[in-house]
Amino acid sequence: CNVFFVMFLLIGQISSTAPSVSPGGTDVTETSTMTVQGKDSSPPQSVRLNNGTSRCSGTVEIKQYGNWTGICLDFWNQQAADVVCRQLGCGLVLEGNFGALNRSTAADWPTVGNATDLPANQSSVVLGPKLLKVNCTGTELDLKNCLLDSVSLHRCYHSNLSRVTCNEHRDIRLVGGSTRCAGRVEVLQYGAWGTVCDDLWGQEEAQVVCRQLGCGFAVAALGSAHFGKGRGEVYLDDLNCTGSEQYLWDCPAEAMSDCGHKEDAGVICSEHREMRLTGGLDRCAGQLELYYEGRWRMVCDISWGNYYSDIVCREMGCGSSRNFTSFFHNSADNWAFYCVPNVEYHLWECKRSLGRPHLCNNITVIGIICNG
């Protein structure tokens, strides 16, 4: 009886681990990852465009074994780029950096078989120290469907990574301000720049713009063409952002706009920086004030010298410094700067601190007279 019981357990264990057979005759298990007719059955999100200004532009990266890896330029071509744009739902290829195998370079590569004799329509994907040969016809639904085999070792520098811009790519910029972090909001769509209407324009929408541009947080959301009237189409109207969107065009908006350019929206972000001289005879003389994070502040005179004043005058288009002096001011919320002569040529490149009473304990601030 015990013998039959042991045989029963063994048969049950073997049955539970043996592969089942699909109707087509292919062995499958619940835990296996299948390759069907040469196509990878992994989740579809296996490719992305990174370090671009939208999800439809950037460096091509493919996900292999849980890691995102760049694709070498050397064999990258239009057919592979077509697959990427289509897979991401980004339309057609607008532009890309397409490489060709350089014989003099390839001669130095360790190779396997005829890796240096790949046809022109094949690409190479970095996978750790290996390359994967890619043969895309341009009709595949997933870039991973193009992968064939590991072919050689290669060092692929970042300057040689493949980049693609698809025609669904969008971009954003601020125009008309004194820095890239303040100005009229303009959006690139289908290869042409247009503007955004100020209807319902507010802090949440401005916050998305500033974050998208890497300009910190929104200080002011402005309307009525504060930075001047733009040109082209008014692409976005009645935006309703929460402030957490990655891109401005992710926000709900009206598809058609009835706005004119007198209603163009604008933004001032916290990383917008300005300088001015106030209280003098003209714009090239007076008390130095700096604008940052939405506020004008003065600069205390600790360690200040002629080199610092020359930087300010030059950046303001006022020639060189004639003289500088100190003024009493009853505020501890001032800037302090330390610049290295002949190394730092812009004031914001210098080491700086804000609101440090122990550095500005005499509460005297700088005034400058320029030659301009």
TrEMBL record:
Q: Which region is the signal sequence?
A: 1-16
Where in or outside the cell it occurs: the entry states: Membrane
Offer a single GO CC term for the protein. Answer: extracellular space
Domain named SRCR is located at: 47-167, 172-270, 275-371
Per its UniProt record, what InterPro entries does this chain match? SRCR, SRCR-like_dom_sf
Q: How does it sit in the membrane?
A: Single-pass membrane protein
Entries under Pfam families matching the protein:
SRCR
Listed GO biological process terms: zymogen activation
Q: Which UniProt keywords apply?
A: Disulfide bond, Glycoprotein, Membrane, Repeat, Signal, Transmembrane, Transmembrane helix
Q: Is Signal among this UniProt entry's keywords?
A: yes
- The UniProt entry lists the main location of this chain as membrane
Disulfide bonds, paired cysteine numbers = C136-C146, C241-C251
Q: Name one GO molecular function term.
A: serine-type endopeptidase activity
Q: Which domain of life is it from?
A: Eukaryota
Question: PANTHER family, from UniProt?
Answer: DELETED IN MALIGNANT BRAIN TUMORS 1 PROTEIN-LIKE, SRCR DOMAIN-CONTAINING PROTEIN
Its protein name is SRCR domain-containing protein
Organism, as annotated: Latimeria chalumnae (Coelacanth)
